[in-house]
């Protein structure tokens, strides 16, 4: 009995596209603090990787991007890269992408159908709460800040990331309606009966 490969060619292409998207979204950045933690759109790209690709393929996209960045490619905020990024002030946020994208995908794709409120909840919990908690701990560990100081710095990023949650939800829902083939087959199959019923 033949078994389906966990990743086919289209999956690999999706992973590559989202890994590139995370990298591209980090090239435009600016600092709002004095310790080198910039604002970028990379968190939005991580949210989208989870909401569109789901937990497994979303995680693969994040890991590909992180490995390339670790190897020295300038894929992080402002064109930075190399091992130093993983022990710098932003390291906690970067490490937070890993559980963040998994949790985002798990919540967004739960229930077997794509619902806007699950997408929004996934982006909020995985893409904001988890990543921000990891970022706070990273500021304590790598920047030597107290919890109170790290929390105060992190709060400055919350309003922008709430906007990213809304954008991730709108983009995901719109993409699913326009091009469901970008999503895992389980969601495509769930969407097919609804489209067929609408066409009758």
Note down, in words, how this protein is organized:
- By secondary structure, this protein is an all-alpha fold.
- The chain has one domain (9-187): Arp2/3 complex 21 kDa subunit ARPC3, CATH 1.10.1760.
- It is 68% helix and 2% strand.
- It is built from 7 helices and 2 strands; from the N terminus they run H-E-E-H-H-H-H-H-H.
- It has helices at 9-24, 42-70, 91-108, 116-142, 147-155, 158-178, 185-199; strands at 30-31, 38-39.
- A two-stranded antiparallel ribbon has the order 1-2.
- Strand 1 (30-31) and strand 2 (38-39) form a beta hairpin.
How would you write the strand order of the largest sheet? 1-2
Order of helices and strands: HEEHHHHHH
Largest sheet geometry: 2 strands, antiparallel
CATH architecture: Orthogonal Bundle
* Content-based structural category: mainly alpha
Instruction: Work out the helicity level.
Output: 55-70%
- Gyration radius from CA atoms, angstroms: 17 Å
Mean pLDDT equals 89
Low-confidence stretches: 194-200
**What is the end-to-end distance?**
37 Å
Q: What is the global morphology?
A: globular
Task: Please tell me the total number of domains.
Answer: 1
Would you give the CATH topology? Arp2/3 complex 21 kDa subunit ARPC3
Please count the helical segments: 7
Percent strand equals under 5%
The CATH class: Mainly Alpha
How many runs of DSSP E, i.e. beta strands?
2
Task: Kindly summarize this structure in a few lines.
The chain is mainly α and 200 residues long.
Summarize the helices and strands and which ones pair or pack.
Layout: H1 9-24, E1 30-31, E2 38-39, H2 42-70, H3 91-108, H4 116-142, H5 147-155, H6 158-178, H7 185-199
Helix pairs in contact: 1-2, 2-3, 2-4, 2-6, 3-4, 4-5, 4-6
